[in-house]
Amino acid sequence: MQLTNSLQNHWMPFTADRAFKADPRMLVRAEGMYYWNERGDRLIDSCAGLYTHAAGHCHPAIVAAIEQQARTLDYAMAFQFGHPASFELAARVAALTPGNLNRIFFVNSGSESVDTALKVALQYHKVRGQGQRTRFVGRERGYHGVNFGGTSLGGMVRNKESFGPGLTGVHHMRHTWRADQTFVKGQPPEGADLANDLERFVQSYGADTIAACIVEPIAGSGGVLVPPVGYLQRLREICDTYGILLIFDEVICGFGRTGAPFGSQAFNVTPDIMTMAKALTNGTVPMGAVAFDDRIYETISGAAPDNSVELFHGYTYSGHPLACAAGIASLNVYRDEGLFERANSIADKFLERVFSLKDISAVKDIRGYGMLAAIDIEPYGAAVRRGFELLRHCYENGMVLRVGTDTAVLAPALIANDDHLDEIVDHLRAALEQF
Ligand SMILES: Cc1ncc(COP(=O)(O)O)c(C=O)c1O
């Protein structure tokens, strides 16, 4: 493959940009569980793209659907016009969501899904005469993307410290990691009481000032923090008591990662709003979505005069035909290949292998649920140095690894077989034992 001879112009996202340009890692092809780089090396993908490729890379049925759509209708004006695929995909997504989360708004990314959810929460309260509900509650170590709403509600300091005050009226609950509960496979038994932080904000600011509380069912980018037993249920109770909307950010947890369609079903708690992206299109065409409870849609729609726009929000590419075709094809593949059930049935094997790394001295904690796990590594020198070395070691030896600071995250595609899981864990053991 012909590569450009200048790397200077592309300023890369969440990347050590100068370091990359001095020592690039260029992926040029992918299929199933593997990537190939420009040197021709095959690398196993331990993070399913970026939690995106539940069905693996370049699935032929999804590729064919995108090709076909590109030939038939490459775009339809998104405002005041429609095209069939977005309605079909919305119905398919609504069939997977729990409860009455049947109204699906399309966006182009997880970040946009979060900011959309927050804006609609504000409008919902406003049309009910509760426009004073403008506060939002997030959580430490939460990640909700990089737009201003998500940046403000997220709880990862590096993502916020350079970008000003963000939204006002934002509060953060404590995260759920506890030093006395390490190496827990699945849900930690203790910590449900941390949800009471939400009630403390009610007491400090008044229940009728809080619009919504947003959490990831499993905090992904913050290091795979699995909710303690009863924690999400307690959040739901507090939200119900005080009229606060509960938003689950399912951008990573959605589409089988937890062994259920969404984290909501895995943990048996139904939110009022759910954000999603990533595996919605098996990572092939950028797309996100927000699922709203019928009640939210009906309240907002019912308040608007006939023939008027009910929600002054949307994107040029909301419900883009290529993304919709990719989404429908992806959901077909997930159904036809039984991938959510498969995730559920292989999760124990996966977690067992990951937890087998516990004996390595550089490993400080391991957490995991479903097909998602994280390994904290003892840092040395500057934070991120060891994580970055781990990433490079794995890359040089045949694996693409996702690291956040000094935490390695594993989230293989749901098509992974025993050999793939062994290969991933063997790479990690070899790299970690080096330390
Ligand atoms: C929980 C969560 N929300 C939002 C986002 C942002 O998604 P995007 O990068 O598509 O904007 C992510 C991305 O990883 C995420 O994990």
The second-level CATH architecture of the largest domain is 3-Layer(aba) Sandwich
CATH class identity of the largest domain: Alpha Beta
The proportion of residues in beta strands is 15-25%
Spans where pLDDT lies below 50 across 5 or more residues: none
Kindly describe this structure.
This protein is of the alpha/beta class and 435 residues long. The chain folds into 2 domains: 17-55 and 339-434, Aspartate Aminotransferase, domain 1 (Alpha-Beta Complex); 64-336, Type I PLP-dependent aspartate aminotransferase-like (Major domain) (Aspartate Aminotransferase, domain 2), CATH 3.40.640. It is built from 14 helices and 15 strands. Helix 4 runs parallel beside helix 11 (321-336). The radius of gyration is 21 Å and the shape is globular. The two termini are 35 Å apart. The structure holds pyridoxal-5'-phosphate. Residues 109-111, 114, 143-145, 216, 220-221, 249, 251-252, 277 line the site of pyridoxal-5'-phosphate.
What does this entry show, briefly?
The protein is α/β, with parallel strands linked by helices and 435 residues long. The chain contains 14 helices and 15 strands. Strand 14 and strand 15 form a beta hairpin.
Secondary structure blueprint with pairings:
Elements: H1 17-22, E1 27-31, E2 34-37, E3 42-45, H2 48-51, H3 60-72, H4 84-96, E4 103-107, H5 110-127, E5 135-139, H6 148-153, E6 170-173, H7 196-205, E7 210-215, H8 231-242, E8 245-249, H9 263-267, E9 273-276, E10 288-292, H10 294-302, H11 321-336, H12 339-355, E11 363-369, E12 372-377, H13 385-397, E13 399-400, E14 402-404, E15 407-410, H14 418-434
Parallel strand pairs: 3-13, 5-6, 5-7, 7-8, 8-9
Antiparallel strand pairs: 1-2, 2-3, 4-10, 9-10, 11-12, 12-15, 14-15
Helix pairs in contact: 3-11, 4-11, 5-10, 7-8, 12-14, 13-14
